[in-house]
Structure formats: C-alpha cells, structure tokens
Amino acid sequence: MSNSNTNSNDPVVSVRDLKVHFEDTSMLNAMAPEWVSDKLGLEKDPTVRAVDDINLDLGENDVLALVGESGSGKTTLGKAMVGLTRPSHGSVKYRGHDIWEVRDGDDDGTTFEEIRRSLQIIHQDPGAALNPYRSVLENLEVPLKRWHPDLNFAERRGRIHQMLERTGISPPEDYSNRYVHQLSGGEQQRVALIRSLLVEPEVILADEAVSALDVSLRIGVMDLFLEMQDLFDTSFIFISHDLANARYLAGKSGGKIGVMYLGELVEIGTAEEIIQNPQHPYTKVLQWATPELDPERAEESMRESPPVRKIDIPDATNPPSGCRFHTRCPEAREACKQETPDLYESGGDQHHQTKCFREIDDHEYWQSEELTDDGIDDTPASDQTDEASS
Ligand SMILES: Nc1ncnc2c1ncn2[C@@H]1O[C@H](COP(=O)(O)OP(=O)(O)OP(=O)(O)O)[C@@H](O)[C@H]1O
Q1: DSSP annotation of 5
Q2: Which residues form the ABC transporter domain (predicted)?
Q3: 321 lines ligand 1 (CB under 6 A)
Q4: Is the CB of 73 under 6 A from ligand 1?
Q5: What's the fold here for domain 1-254?
C-alpha cells in the first residue's frame, strides 16, 4: 500500500489497550426497562468480555499463533486485528492508521478499501468463502476482477493457473474447471488460500484453517501455508485450540505463540520458549492437555491429573477478579485475587512475556497466603466490587 507515512519498520498491525465486549442487543434489552424484565422474570444477557486489555504488534512477514480453550477470545482478537470486529475500547492500527477512524472517515491518509484488501481472513470452512455454483476459475477470478480490473481474461487465467500449480493443485487446466464440491477438503482449503493471496494482502488471519482436515492432511496444508507465507512475505495470524499445531506453525516460521485465557493474553513467546519453558500455569495446563508435544512423556502424563484446582472454566460474562486464572491455578495466592498482573518479561527475555506475579521476585505475591481448594473464591469481579461498596 502506498503511503508516505509508511515505514517498513513499523508494525503492520498494532493493537493497544484492546477490549471487545459484546453487549446484549436483543429486543428485550433494547426495548424493555429493567423493571419490566424483572417483573416478567426474564433475564437479560450480560455483557460478554470476549477480549480485554490486549497490547500486541504484528510485524512484516511475521507469524503469530493464538492458542487457548474454546471461548478464550482467539477469534474475536484475530477479527479485531484484521478490522472485522470493532473494538469497544482501545485501538487497532494498520501501518499507523487507526482502522476505525479510517472507516469512519476521520483519516484521509488511506482508505478503508485498501485496509480491507491488505487484511484477509481464511475460515475453518473453506466452502463458506467459495461459491459452490461456480468453477474454481470463476471463484478465483472474483478477487482479481475487483482488485486488478486492468487484467484481461487471459492474464487472470494465467495468474490463477500459476497459483494452482504453486500450491500443488495440478494440472491447473483440469482443476480450474471443476466445481468446489468436486474438490477434497484439503484442495478446497488450498483454493481458499489462493483466493486470499491473489489480492496480495499483508496479513492473513487463518481461523482454525486446518482443524477440520484429516490429521494426515494437516501437516501438508500447514506446510503450504508456511511456504506461501515465506514466498509472498505475508504475515499470518493462525488461530488454533491445539498447541501442537501452534508449535508447528510458529516453530517452523520463527514466529510466536500467544496463549489466551478468558479474553486475556496470558503468555507470549517463541515456540521454543512456550513449549520448552512455559511460565504461566495456564500454559502448563495446555501443555499437559497436548501429550503429542512430548510422546515419551505422553503415557506417563495421561495418568496424572491436570495441573489445575478446578476443571470448569469461569463465565466470560463475569470473569474472576485479579488474575482471571486464580480460581483454577495451582500456584494461586491471595494477591492473585486482589490485583491483576501485567505481562512481565520472563527471565529477562523481552520476547517472552507472562501475565503472572511469579515473574516478579519481590512481588507481595510471595508473602501472601496460598489459596487452597477450600479457599477458592468464585466470586466474580463485579460481585466483589458490589459487596465491597455495600
Ligand atoms: N457476536 C458475538 N456476540 C456475543 N458474544 C460473542 C460473539 N462472538 C463471540 N462471543 C463470545 O465471546 C467469547 C469469545 O469468543 P471467541 O469465539 O472469540 O473465542 P474462541 O477462543 O475463538 O473460541 P472458539 O475456539 O470456540 O471459536 C465467547 O464467550 C463467545 O461466546
């Protein structure tokens, strides 16, 4: 994208103090005053705090793999980073331009259309992005016609055939005439990847893009993503609930793994650091739950119980006070209930950060009382504030 303010050292996407909260937009909430719903005995859905207080930069040619349990906010963060979900608070900048200020017309240095082209998404279900009633060629012509209207039919077909061949879909003349339903899952995902790459984006968000694939096909598609990432110098945000996939993607590309828990980024670092030297107690839980990371220990660890005090994940509408993991954390102490940790450097490594007081040698955490199973306080943050003020 041409812009005189663009500096190649700047992050491509930069997120500051990001919150994405989903309000209840149902008719009941919009129309009925509190006393009406109380009288009718109807409960309004509270706000979901899907993403809270995240600061993150994605550089050029960078790879970030976001992992965490279902509902931890991975997709919401990813979509906010590519301008598909509007933040409730904070900013998401593309090459220094606040995406939503541009969208709302407050910034004349760039256009929202250009941002939309630069930030693409590939979904878990590739079929969703492809028209089943059109051939592969017709599907892939759509982005080219939109973003490169100067190309004629022969030039478009030439580019499409080249991309099909590069991604291992061969012979391209044959495949380009097939309909989407005549392709395997792996071939559909390749076509979805080509569709995104044809518009020459700077960032691709791949949301669980390999989870629906058979395990035997997964490595091939992940390798292809990484090959294309390298070839086109495109930054990728991979979303996966599987730490083994995240390790593969971030490890091979020299990227980072970001671990999410209840809307917060709790640890971020290189694949090597997150797998070999995890610091956050929640990252250790994910590692325990992924025995294939260490097959030698797999059998042994399957016999152990998970390193948590409670299995149940608290509700994202009312997360626990202080450190959100304190209700399940085996290392939790009183201080974790009261205060929210920042992301601290782990062991002096600026590329490895952990949201846990245990990173700070002289933090009052070390003097505070350990939380035992009997002492687990499930009171959500908001209720505690209410109690304190009443
Ligand atoms: N449009 C929405 N409206 C209301 N709540 C939402 C919406 N989108 C997501 N949520 C809620 O926000 C929280 C985070 O969801 P998100 O999909 O980002 O998590 P995730 O880690 O990607 O989970 P999964 O792996 O299951 O997709 C969840 O509690 C989810 O129910």
Answers
A1: T
A2: 20-287
A3: no
A4: yes
A5: Rossmann fold (3.40.50)
Per DSSP (E only), the strands in the chain are: 13-22, 48-58, 63-67, 89-94, 97-98, 119-122, 203-207, 235-240, 256-261, 264-270, 344-346, 349-354
State how beta strands 63-67 and 256-261 pair: parallel
CATH 3.40.50.300 domain position(s) in the chain? 1-254
Establish whether residue 314 lines the binding site of ligand 1, counting it when its CB lies within 6 angstroms of any ligand atom: no
- pLDDT (tens digit, 9 = 90+) per residue, 123-163? 888 877 888 889 999 999 999 999 999 999 999 999 999 99
For residue 160 the two structure tokens come to 């499409």
The residues facing 238 across adjacent strands are: 65, 206
**ipTM metric:** 0.98
Q: How far is the CA of 263 from the centre of ligand 1 (A)?
A: 9
Answer whether 0.90 is exceeded by the pTM: no
Could you tell me the two tokens for 222? 């992940």
CA dist 244 and 44 (Å) reads 39
**Residue 269: both structure tokens together:** 């670092």
Report the distance separating Cα 310 and Cα 305, nearest Å: 11
Q: Report the pLDDT value the prediction gives residue 384, as an integer from 0 to 100.
A: 43
CA of 291 to the centre of ligand 1 (A): 26
